[in-house]
Design brief:
single chain; 7-stranded mixed sheet; 2 helices; Jelly Rolls; mainly beta
């Protein structure tokens, strides 16, 4: 009898361990390893492909709350994406490479590398490419919960370029990392664009050689880091001893951190080398907006 109880106890502990292992508090992808998948943005499109990193099109989409989609859209020379709109999803595009045209509400607007733009729910939009090189954009979508009041979309899209945003030091993160605050909520007073309702902070981190984003967590937000340039160690959660878990990463590494998960970064860059860059974005859980 006692041996049976012991065996049952061991099984329970093993199952508990498997449950913990199954949910590490983060998801990890490498852009180049993610295969393009059919998507709304590529339906009937010309020379367009989409790599779903998180959310729609990804196997772990059901684990996300505020994030509807996050991926890389590529439009080849002479190509165009599908024109899409979502009644309860705001989107943000960040042009990571190339130049082209934003199709927005029946009008066309030029876009180039490092442009970022807010695309309101319900407004038809897409990308076209008349250049000789590939146009690549990071596509970010966020669910707008029922009951959230949004303002009518302006006729002109909200577009800015990261090169025009000044770097600044945020005291709580230390002096070796500087921030470009690109976009925030409609109530924001510090971001270049104050436009969103769910996505509450889009920013670029610029790391001095050997710089650090001091490990921390956000209890009521989902956060995504995309390493645009460089290599280093990403902090994602803690290990069995409660210490920061560090993962070697290279350009193209993407992490989605669930609420409360430990997050940080340590740059490997040496003096004289280009600074590491991370594109980061946070979004609030529905209950945090109430």
């Amino acid at each position: 009898m006692r041996s049976s109880i012991v065996k049952v106890g061991i099984i329970v502990l093993m199952l508990a361990g498997l449950a913990v292992a199954a949910d590490q508090g983060f998801l990890r992808r490498q852009v180049a390893d993610v295969k393009p998948q059919p998507d709304d943005l590529t339906a009937g499109a010309k020379a367009a492909s989409y790599r779903p990193l998180f959310g729609a099109g990804d196997k772990d989409a059901g684990q996300l709350t505020s994030v509807a989609r996050y991926g890389e859209l590529t439009v080849g020379p002479g190509g165009s994406s599908a024109i899409v709109s979502y009644p309860a999803e705001e989107q943000i595009y960040f042009v990571a490479e190339g130049s082209g045209t934003l199709l927005h509400g029946g009008e066309s607007f030029p876009v180039r590398k490092n442009d970022f733009m807010y695309l309101p729910a319900g407004v038809k939009h897409g990308l076209a490419n008349s250049s000789g090189g590939a146009l690549k954009a990071v596509v970010m979508g966020y669910r707008i919960s029922p009951g959230v009041t949004t303002q009518p979309a302006p006729k002109q899209p909200m577009i800015a370029n990261a090169d025009d945003v000044q770097l600044q030091v945020l005291g709580q993160h230390g002096p070796t990392t500087q921030f470009k605050l690109l976009m925030g909520l409609t109530s924001s007073r510090r971001d270049k664009l104050a436009s969103a309702y769910v996505m509450d902070s889009l920013f670029i981190m610029d790391f001095a050689p050997g710089g650090t984003n001091i490990p921390h967590n956000h209890p009521a937000e989902e956060e995504i880091y995309l390493l645009l340039r460089g290599s280093g160690d990403m902090v994602a959660g803690v290990d069995a001893e409660g210490k920061d878990a560090r993962y070697p990463v290279t350009e193209g590494a993407a992490f989605l951190f669930k609420p409360g998960t430990r997050v940080g970064y340590y740059s490997n860059a040496k003096e004289g080398q280009a600074h590491d860059l991370i594109l980061a974005v946070r979004s609030m859980l529905p209950r945090a907006r109430n």
